[in-house]
Specification:
With 374 residues, this protein is of the alpha/beta class. A hairpin with a 6-residue loop joins β5 and β6. Helices cover 43% and strands 18% of the residues. It is globular. The protein binds adenosine-5'-triphosphate. The site of adenosine-5'-triphosphate (ATP) has 18 residues, from α1. This is DNA replication and repair protein RecF. It is found in: Cytoplasm.
Length: 374
């Protein structure tokens, strides 16, 4: 990468498994993970703007990643790259050829990100979990993409009609009549989405429970899909028609899968209210690792794990367990202020990137130490 965040220039070689990114606060460890994500997706996992990403004092920044894809014995290597020069659009390329997006490219590696902010998935409101669930659904079953879009389009159109009916002051009977075709479209799209969501959650739940056990989270961890409306299209149609008066009053559809939640529970109790900080952290890790297992089972590919500041609030025993779990979980990058916070960081198969803050918050080259270098 060149001229991104704190980096003037850096080149990093990842190990085949775990790579530890160590350095003091503010050195640029998260920036490095962000650059890896940016190179493979064209996006910042912090939702950063182009101006935030480009190094202060530079006009343009660039990052590229060498990506291996395919099955063992038939691997191919692609070069993904992202050029940023505000105010122009980001320039995305694969093997030098311009592309509109990287997300749909068949060689794109999946990435699973743990950021402290993402604890909101366990602690926060249902909206985040719902969005996460839909992303997981599409990752597990790419053909579910149109299904999700179809539902949101039907919902958007029904809501637009509700607003128009309200503005026109249309009476209830006539409103029901005008809404009927949209109700039918919404109910059938909703039923299909709900069924697909339920199947996705059923596919990840056992893996999440197993990962939680391995990480030493006491008590059975469970993820469960909680649809708040009926999963049957006819019943949902009936429910929509019964709620027309309320919808007209509010000006939007208040019943359907856009209100669902994904429950994360331990021993039947929501972790958001009954979990300690460390337990919530372990639960989020178990969720991401379990989802990675399900993705691996579905596609044969393991997501690259980007784990930022994951060790804080974990005791020594849980840290060791996490490192053991990561040893068999494909490529992972983990940030820590001291490499010694990762038990076994000095093992031969663990890569080490030491990020040193340079003058004026710039880093010339991040060094990577791998087995070959030692
Ligand atoms: N565009 C930019 N140009 C130069 N520096 C930047 C830019 N964007 C962010 N920074 C600097 O990057 C630093 C933060 O980097 P980063 O978040 O990667 O640190 P970190 O090593 O993960 O730290 P911590 O251990 O505290 O989490 C801050 O000092 C910030 O000022």
């Amino acid at each position: 990468m060149r001229d991104l965040r704190t980096y003037v220039e850096a080149e990093v070689e990842l190990g085949p498994g775990l790579t530890v990114v160590a350095g003091p606060n503010g050195a640029g460890k998260t920036n490095l993970l962000e650059a890896a994500y940016l190179a493979c997706t064209g996006r910042s996992f912090r939702g950063a703007s182009d101006r935030e990403l480009v190094r202060r004092g530079a006009d343009a920044g660039h990052v590229s990643a060498e990506v291996e894809s395919g099955a063992a014995g038939a691997l191919s290597v692609s070069a993904f790259s992202v050029g940023i020069q505000p105010p122009d659009r980001r320039r995305l390329r694969v093997d030098g050829n311009p592309v509109d997006g990287l997300l749909d490219h068949p060689a794109r590696p999946r990435m699973s990100v743990f950021l402290p902010d993402r604890l909101a998935l366990v602690k926060g409101g249902p909206g985040l979990r719902r969005a996460h669930l839909d992303q997981l659904l599409v990752a597990l079953r790419p053909s579910a993409g149109p299904l999700r879009r179809g539902f949101h389009e039907a919902l958007r159109q029904r809501n637009a009609l509700l607003t128009s009916l309200r503005t026109r002051g249309v009476d209830l009977d006539r409103a029901r009549g005008e809404l009927a075709p949209w109700d039918r479209a919404l109910a059938s799209a909703a039923a299909a989405l709900t069924e697909a969501r339920a199947a996705a959650v059923a596919a990840v739940d056992p893996a999440v429970a197993e990962r939680a056990r391995q990480l030493g989270l006491d008590g059975e961890l469970e993820v469960a899909y909680r649809p708040r409306s009926s999963t049957d299209a006819d019943e949902l149609l009936q429910a929509l028609s019964e709620r027309v008066a309320g919808d007209l009053e509010r000006g939007f559809t208040h019943h359907g899968p856009h209100r669902d939640d994904l429950a994360v529970r331990r021993e039947g109790r929501p972790l958001s209210r009954f979990g300690s900080q460390g337990e919530q952290r372990l639960a989020l890790l178990a969720l991401l690792l379990g989802e990675a297992d399900a993705l691996h089972a579905a596609s044969g590919q393991r997501p690259v794990l980007l784990l930022d500041d994951v060790m804080s609030e974990l005791d020594v025993e849980r840290r060791s367990r996490l490192v053991e779990v990561l040893a068999g979980a494909g490529q992972a990058l983990i940030t820590v202020t001291e490499a010694s916070h990762v038990p076994g960081a000095d093992a031969d198969d663990v890569g080490l990137v030491e990020v040193e803050p340079g003058a004026a918050a710039t880093v010339r080259v991040a060094t990577v130490s791998t087995e070959a270098d030692r």
